[in-house]
Specification:
The protein has about 190 residues and is α/β, with parallel strands linked by helices. It is built from 9 helices and 5 strands; from the N terminus they run αβαααβαβααβααβ. It has a single domain, classed as Rossmann fold, CATH 3.40.50. A 5-stranded parallel β-sheet has the order 1-2-5-3-4, sandwiched between helices.
Length: about 190
């Protein structure tokens, strides 16, 4: 929730020399509605289905940094798709989250009592983030450039140097997890946003 994926993701992609994509942007573009409007008009279950489809498509099509909404990990199939990929979980404490989220009113799950709701969401989701995360990077008190550098360093320490990766797509459908394993491969950013 305001942890910085939309700022850090493009910076990370630039540093790695790869593209950036955000599944929330894909959903908005595909639906012609904001996420808040989708939640209000169609409900959270409908949004989660759109999100699941957006993540699956993006993992199959995109070779760079992929940002996911924080609720994406709620889906078991999505977590299975993320298994074996470099997944970065950006975190912050509740006070920082509320301060940042208050600046962005388009967060439907934080509309009422954001501090309490953020804490509830994190308590419910934390184990899922830990399940899929390759590395966890705290954003508290850091600039976007500092967070980007921390992500690169954390990934390099865990898996060796992070290098840009480009693959050619075969004509046949491929299994995304198999095609994107290993150093320098796409880094889905998973942020607790929605």
């Amino acid at each position: 929730m305001g942890v910085g994926k939309s700022t850090v993701g493009p910076l990370l992609a630039e540093r790695l020399g790869v593209g950036y994509r955000d599944t929330d942007d894909d959903i908005v573009a595909g639906q012609g509605s904001t996420i808040a409007d989708i939640f209000a008009n169609e409900g959270e279950p409908a949004f989660r289905e759109l999100e699941k489809d957006a993540v699956r498509r993006a993992l199959g099509e995109h070779d760079g940094v992929l940002a996911l909404g924080g609720g994406a990990v709620l889906d078991e199939d999505t977590r299975a798709l993320l298994a074996g990929l470099r997944v970065v979980c950006l975190t912050m404490d509740v006070e920082e989250a509320v301060r940042r989220a208050d600046l962005d009113v388009a967060r439907p799950l934080l509309a009422v009592d954001p501090r309490k709701r953020w804490t509830e969401l994190m308590d419910a989701r934390r184990h899922l983030y830990e399940e899929v995360a390759t590395v966890v990077v705290a954003t508290d008190g850091r600039t976007s450039d500092e967070v980007t550098q921390a992500v690169l360093e954390a990934l390099a320490l865990r898996d060796g140097p992070v290098r840009p990766y480009h693959r050619s797509r075969p004509a046949a459908r491929r299994a995304p997890r198999q095609a994107v394993r290993g150093p320098g491969r796409p880094c889905p950013l998973d942020e607790p946003t929605r």
